[in-house]
Amino acid sequence: MTGKSELEPGSVVRRRMEARVRKYRGKLYVAVQDQALELDEIAEAIFRRINGTSTLREIGASLAEEYGIPADVALADVTDFVEQLRGHGVVESGA
What we know:
Elements: E1 13-15, E2 20-24, E3 27-32, E4 35-39, H1 41-49, H2 56-67, H3 71-87, E5 91-93
Antiparallel strand pairs: 1-5, 2-3, 3-4
């Protein structure tokens, strides 16, 4: 077993303490060790909602409302992006 479970709509993730966040020239960057990720507007909106208590479903619903997109599309985008963040060591599954 890898220790990383599949993300589901009810999954909760939190930012890892090692993740550093910087705003530079209007762009948000997230770094862990020697990797830095530049976040676009949607990625930043998702990242800012990762608080260790909200589920992926709740984050998706919030984005759907803010951007006027279907909730299922928003949830799929959130899940895909959070999986990428987890792969880079930026976030981890919550309790």
